[in-house]
């Protein structure tokens, strides 16, 4: 369904920089579609009255998959930030580090 | 899609007990459909090259929603275990506590 | 230092029930002393300018040790709650389940 | 006790770089001493048979304090990495990003 989106126009990042993950976009989308499948699997489990503990095991698996997706995205972003430091200077790069650190804190605490 | 499942037959829990969450099944399914929407939203964000940090914020929100779903399920399950202790005796209830504790550990560590 | 505490008097739980972990108190204290050692080890690492990533690895180990301590405590508490249901009735046991679930939520989210 | 360590020699980082957190060492040590106090407080709680749920609340607080310490350390490290990219070149900086990402993954999963 997401594929019906008119994304071809290539909406720019709201921060005016092309995102660091463009090259691996297909891999990210594939991962997200697999997670979507896991969530739909959870609905089937609940719908067929599956034993609670077995549902919880699948929730843990989906949570881990989401975390892995986030960690992959973050690694690319940090790599991108570091490269940008070389072209845009230290000050802008440090602002990005602050922003990335806040995102890391949200991940660690969620 | 989950709704096409022939779940009306009321598949029993593999452990021979009707799951503790039957009464709130609709609420759980509604919650999961909302999470599915969040995952599809993530696909749209990636597909339209949204800035990485903004994608990560949405990942944190989806992770928290999954955790809340799991915590709700778990609370009902524990309530069910405790009630069962009164009818099935302490030994069986203690086995359930062990099993639930393992599920909690997976949630805490994921 | 904790050992200098006059704990022999057996301060009662604020909720009027003897805690579910009394039997394994020594094991819990041993675990906490080991974690205290890990925190002191972290201080030595920082004090001697150890490489940040190596410090972070030890922080992850200490966090996991704290989580394991909490999970052990929680399992005993749940076992205790279930046993109590048999003597104190379902209503009181269900109140305990609510309380335990809130503690689990704090652990999962921290 | 950590202060008795002969740390004055200024042990170098094993990776040959002075750690990024040297300037804020005192703040980090102060934070760790407070966490050590929290762990000792936990021992007193267990030793005096405090109600399990109240002990768990304090464990969550200590875990969050450890996470905050880690996140602070990490932010400084990333800032340091980015600055280094300007002097040591992109290749070395990218190796650091890989290493930092692995540490972030350990934090998110612990």
Tell me the Rg of chain A in angstroms.
18 Å
Instruction: Describe the global form of chain A.
Output: elongated
- Give, in order, the helices and strands of chain A: HHH
Number of strands of chain A: 0
The residue-averaged pLDDT of chain A reads 84
Give descriptors for this structure.
homotetramer; 110 residues; mainly alpha; 3 helices; 0% strand
Walkthrough of the structure:
Four copies of one chain form a homotetramer. Chain A is mostly helical and 110 residues long. Chain A is 73% helix and 0% strand. The first copy, chain A, has three helices and no strands. In chain A, helix 2 runs antiparallel to helix 3. The longest helix of chain A is centred in the middle third of the chain and has 37 residues.
Gist of the model:
Chain A has 110 residues and is mostly helical. Chain A has 3 helices and no strands.
What is this structure's SSE topology?
The structure is a homotetramer of 110-residue chains.
Chain A: H1 25-47, H2 52-88, H3 90-109
């Amino acid at each position: 369904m997401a594929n019906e989106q008119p994304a071809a126009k290539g909406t720019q990042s709201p921060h005016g920089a092309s995102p660091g993950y463009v090259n691996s976009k297909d891999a990210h989308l594939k991962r997200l579609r697999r997670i979507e499948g896991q969530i739909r699997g959870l609905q089937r489990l609940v719908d067929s009255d599956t034993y609670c503990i077995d549902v919880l095991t699948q929730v843990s698996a989906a949570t881990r998959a989401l975390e892995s997706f986030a960690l992959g995205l973050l690694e690319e972003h940090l790599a991108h930030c570091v490269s940008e430091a070389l072209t845009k200077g230290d000050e802008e790069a440090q602002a990005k580090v602050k922003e990335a650190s806040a995102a890391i804190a949200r991940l660690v605490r969620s």
